[in-house]
Amino acid sequence: MRIAAGASSDIGLVREANEDSLLAEPPVFAVADGMGGHRGGEVASALALETLRQVRGPLADQVREANRVVFERSLSDRALSGMGTTLTAAVAEETRVRLAHVGDSRAYLWRDGRLRRLTEDHTLVNQMVKEGKITEQEATVHPQRSILTRALGVDRDVRVDEDSVDVLDQDRILLCSDGLTAMVGDGQIASVLAQAADPQEAADLLARAANEAGGIDNITALVVDFRGGDEPPGDGDRSAESPRPAAEPRRPSLLERGARLGLALAAAVAIAVVALVGLRLYVDGQWFVGVSDGRVALFRGIPAEVAGFKLHHVVVETEVQASEIEQLALWRDRLRDGITAPSRDDAEEIVDQMRADLAKRAREAAQGPNG
Ligand code: MN
Question: HSE of 199 in the Cβ direction (CA atoms, 13 Å)?
């Protein structure tokens, strides 16, 4: 089986640092999502993957070793106390992939356009779903959805989920942090994987989709493609191609981008506030004649709604029946839409004109049918 991989790790649009780390050093692939204070998360995820990379042996043993290393560092450095990380790792062997997993990062198998989740989230909400206390749908918006029930490096020992899957030609394995899956549903992930043939392009598009959905967390996506079973001619001893990213656990330093985004957000908020205040002043200065409770009424504001909010309120309901005005062709359509006026006096003049028109019509009716 030939392997090609692509990976993308992005700070997202809200966080001040990227605490995710990834390892793409065929045949070992892993994603880690660190947590715990300013530096803690970054150190925990990077240290876990660095350990995973150096130790060779059964995958679950490597993960337990990574747990021990992170835990001991958190004891020896007060600034890192309480740090921890998720870890979802895959090792490719000929036609199988071995998996080891702790936390709420995920592994997926994409085959024939369908996405299958290979890992279970070690989160409080997932436990509540399994116990039937909340639905899967409720879990996706639950305020405590990011609370982990298991993480690497927070205790001397950790329980590691292990699994393995057979892989076929054209299969894809996706490893990702919750910054992707919290923002992008499985359906959209599957369609991105279907549309991007190149694994690097797929990883980049997944990260972009999470940012387009809000990017509230760090996003990491690692896509591993499996091809054929035959070695390409003249390439006998290469069983894997390195992905474009460096093999070391890495982290884009995008602090500058975060600072610039902060300024842009502040400016956007300021503009929105000025616009709202301006709109409010403008709206309050406007009048129109419309219908309230079946009667002609004077309104303050403009005859419109924005996002369900009415931009007007009734000031006076007159004695004039709207149904009578609607018999007058001149007024009917305009009254329905609201007849705007620059001042209250102007609005009252409009109503006076309606009264005059009604009186005139009544006089004409008294004189008999039109001839
Ligand atoms: Mn995360």
Answer: 25
Determine contact, residues 175/28, Cβ cutoff 8 Å. Answer: no
150 CA to middle of ligand 1, Å?
14
Q: Which amino acid is at 227?
A: R
Q: Which residues contact 208 (CB under 8 A, 6 or more apart)?
A: none
Using CB atoms within 10 A of its CB, is residue 185 exposed (0-12), middle (13-18) or buried (19+)? middle
Cα(239) to centroid of ligand 1, in Å?
Answer: 32
Cβ atoms within 10 Å, residue 146: 15
Backbone angles phi, psi at 131, to 5 degrees: -85, 0
Quick one: three-class SS letters along 12-30? CCCCCCCCEEEEEECCEEE
Ligand 1 centroid to Cα of residue 217, in Å, is 6
pLDDT of residue 310: 79
Tell me, in angstroms, the distance from the centre of ligand 1 to residue 181's CA.
9
At 256, the pLDDT band (50, 70, 90 cuts) reads low
Residue 136 CA to ligand 1 center (angstroms) comes to 19
pLDDT confidence bin for 238, thresholds 50/70/90: very low
Count of CB atoms within 10 A of residue 83's CB? 28
Taking the centre of ligand 1 as the mean of its atom positions, its distance from the CA of residue 146, in whole angstroms, is 8
State mean pLDDT over 55-75: 93
| Residue 362 identity (one-letter amino acid) | A
How many CB atoms lie under 10 A from the CB of residue 216? 15
33 Cα–ligand 1 center, Å: 5
Q: If you measure from the C-alpha of residue 220 to the centroid of ligand 1, how many angstroms do you get, rounded to a whole number?
A: 9
pLDDT digits (tens, 9 = 90+) for 122-146: 998 999 999 999 998 888 888 788 7
Q: 12: CA distance to ligand 1 center in Å?
A: 10
Ligand 1: centre distance to CA 218 (Å): 6
Q: How confident is the model at residue 235 (pLDDT cuts 50, 70, 90)?
A: very low
Residue with token string 């002609």: 296
- Å from CA of 67 to ligand 1 middle: 18
